[in-house]
Amino acid sequence: MEIVAALPLAARAAAGGGVIFGAATLLVFGLALSSPLVLAVYTARGRRGLEALARLAGRMPRWTGGVLVGLGGWTLWLAFS
Question: Whole-model pTM?
Fold first, then answer.
């Protein structure tokens, strides 16, 4: 459903929507991604959940970060090849 809603935006950007349109799109996307985290910080239940995730992240092995960096590099390679 979200992909269908984003198609007109992608078409406008491909048609030369300009830098301002791209910056505004990134702003809206960033706000949409960060707003749930902001709401979680302001509630006790949300803070407990974030603290539980932080404890799990502390036990994650270092090679996991390497795998994620590798996947990111592979994604960039696919995008630009």
Answer: 0.46
